[in-house]
Amino acid sequence: REGIYTIQVEVTGTHTGSFILRYALLPTASENGLTLTVNGEPTPAVSVYGETVSGVIQVTSNGKPLEKDVEYTLAYSYQPFTGTGAVPAGTPYDAEEVFGDIPAAGLYVVTATAVDDSGYTGSGTFVFLVQQKRLEDSMIGKLGEETYTGLPITPVPVVTYTGDSAENLLLAGDYTVSYQDNRNAGTARLTVTASTGSNNFTG
After folding, report:
1. What is the distance between the alpha carbons of residues 112 and 33, in angstroms, rounded to a whole number?
2. Whose CA, among 46, 159, 192, 193, lies 20 to 30 Å from 170?
């Protein structure tokens, strides 16, 4: 069935380690009487976390635009890639409330249902998939030079999901930091890795 699934791979033998794969199975487009589009485009709308999403849905029946709450109602469900925050199917849908800011990564399914005695029947769905954003070197703020102390040097990086704004800082729970060759004089390595519990980031 549609949803977001996780596969954990354990490597054994000559090599060891593990990694996690997450993927989404999108529901098939449903046009049981009603057709849903966003900016004239059909389902699905695929984006990446950090991008704005237009959640304003147009509903038509045989090409005729319908009036919300008079001829149809909208409800939605939301499933994150990981963690809590899922929204059950049938929750009233408001585009500004759901997508007004930067929406969380995950699968959003919006359903339009014809209002009784409106002259229309049936339903239809529209799918939004907001993919996790992959961490990149450009997202880590520039680090200054450090002075040898005989102890491990562990500078705290500034990590942003656009790479250019302090307003877009990643939360501490979204990533971990590891260090290599950071005790003696020379070039050290700092690695930022998305936490397994991060819903919005990967890599």
Report:
1. 10
2. 46
HSE-CB of 130 using CA atoms within 13 angstroms? 24
What pLDDT, in 10s, does the model give residues 74-116?
999 999 999 999 999 999 999 999 998 889 999 999 999 999 9
Given pLDDT bands bounded at 50, 70 and 90, which one contains residue 146? Answer: very high
Name, in order, each residue with C-beta under 8 angstroms of 86's C-beta and a sequence gap of 6 or more. 77, 78, 79, 80
Tokens of 14: 């000559």
User: pTM of the entire structure?
Assistant: 0.85
Of 80, 133, 83, which Cα lies nearest the Cα of 107?
A: 80
Q: Which amino acid is at 66?
A: L
Contact 55, 95 (CB under 8 A): yes
* Tokens found for residue 13: 């033998």
- Of residues 155 and 12, more confidence is placed in 155
Count the neighbouring beta carbons within 10 Å of the beta carbon of residue 134: 12
Half-sphere exposure of residue 203: CA atoms within 13 angstroms, side-chain side: 11
Alpha carbons within 13 A on the beta-carbon side of 188: 21
- The amino acid sitting at 69 is D
Q: Around Cβ 53, how many Cβ atoms within 10 Å? A: 20
